[in-house]
Specification:
With 379 residues, the protein is α/β, with parallel strands linked by helices. It has 10 helices and 12 strands. A hairpin with a 7-residue loop joins β7 (268-273) and β8 (281-288).
């Protein structure tokens, strides 16, 4: 068994499957996952998944596809079979069950403590320490504190965390606007620090382009879409701090200032609010594409100004056990760190009565979960 990549066939009768245990990864304990079940390829380089067709397309076929793609009347589609035969890059959470890669709005009334909570999230991700009872993935964080200065940041950090510092958390109190320098600044930061996981923009209003149509639905939607394209292409999370309007609403998320274009284009939103402004208690509501809707009850420590979790209204939903993944986990051990063979041979090795085509497609779809929950790469 070696970790050298090989060209493999994709047909169900001749699919070669390689299972590799990745060292240094937490194994065996199931974790809650988002809606997008895909494998985090950048985390696993030599042991990553790659499926290749032995019979590569001819020049004529490639040429025909290229000409079709240039035709404005051509609609690019993908079949269900192609979806099932493809392994997609994963979206491992930054904060398990709470925050995922993508673009999120973090809204709340002015002077409510949003920046303190943003600082708390940034610090925990940059250190990899659990936030409340949520597991955190460690990575580099950039915090654009555009309504602060460095002196205030220094005092805030010291009050919250003492002298326990981290080299993975970066701050800036000035930045360009969208379309006027910000795009290039963020791209350069990420290219120089490829382990970047989170960028916080505090606040969104500070980086918006000025214009007469600045607050239309189309403009709001375009701004978030532009930021989302950057976040998705770099596999990071963008947290956009924003304000709420004073008017109450039956749906709390309708209180986000601006049009519905902001929330409509974003991957999700966090809403922080207090029932009593002078009190320390607050509620954090979470809604998004990749995580379960939640309501968290927080209390602010008057001494450190850290937000503490008091209770969660809804327990996180956990996926039921998957027998195929459990069987693989029992077989891939330190004594047997890898396995290679056809899908038919894999079913026999695992002792499962399952068709080769079915086992291949299930592994394609569940590759992200196999890696995330058991630390095993599928190729």
């Amino acid at each position: 068994m070696t970790k050298q990549k090989e060209t493999v066939a994709l047909s169900s009768s001749a699919l070669h499957t390689e299972l590799l245990s990745s060292p240094g990864l937490p194994a065996k304990e199931p974790q809650s996952v988002g809606a997008d079940e895909r494998q985090p390829l950048p985390t696993c380089i030599e042991d990553s998944i790659s499926n290749y067709d032995e019979n590569s397309k001819s020049f004529e076929e490639v040429q025909r596809e290229l000409l079709r793609s240039l035709d404005p009347s051509y609609l690019k589609t993908i079949s269900m079979n192609e979806l099932y035969d493809t392994v997609y890059d994963g979206k491992p959470p930054l904060i398990n069950g709470l925050l995922y890669p993508g673009t999120y709005i973090f809204a709340g009334a002015p002077k409510l403590g949003k920046s303190f909570l943003m600082t708390q999230i940034a610090y925990h991700i940059s250190t990899g320490r659990p936030l409340w009872n949520y597991t955190v993935q460690k990575g580099t964080v950039l915090y654009l504190a555009l309504e602060d200065d460095y002196r205030r940041l220094q005092e805030r950090l010291y009050r919250m965390f003492g002298t326990d510092s981290t080299e993975n958390l970066f701050f800036s109190v000035s930045a360009g606007q969208l379309g006027n320098g910000l795009d290039e600044q963020l791209s350069r930061f990420v290219s120089e620090r490829p382990n970047t996981k989170l960028i916080i923009i505090d606040t969104l209003q500070k980086v918006r382009e000025m214009g007469g149509d600045n607050y239309s639905y189309a403009n709001d939607y375009q701004i978030i879409t532009r930021l989302k394209s950057f976040a998705d292409s770099n596999g990071i999370c963008l947290l956009l701090v924003h304000h709420t309007r004073k008017q109450a609403a039956d749906d709390k998320f309708d209180m986000i200032s601006g049009t519905n274009g902001l929330l409509g284009a974003a991957d999700g939103a966090f809403l922080l609010y207090k029932e009593k402004r002078t009190g320390n208690a607050a509620t954090l509501e979470v809604s998004g594409r990749d995580q379960q809707d939640q309501k968290l009850y927080l209390c602010r420590n008057p001494e450190t100004l850290l937000w503490d979790l008091q209770k969660v209204e809804t327990e996180l939903w956990r996926e039921p056990p998957e027998p195929l993944l459990d069987s693989i986990s029992r077989q891939i051990t330190t004594d047997c760190p890898g396995w290679k063979g056809t899908a038919t041979e894999l079913a026999a090795w695992l002792g499962l009565d399952i068709q080769a085509n079915s086992i291949a497609r299930k592994l394609n779809i569940l590759a992200g979960r196999l890696f995330r929950e058991y630390g095993i790469c599928y190729k």
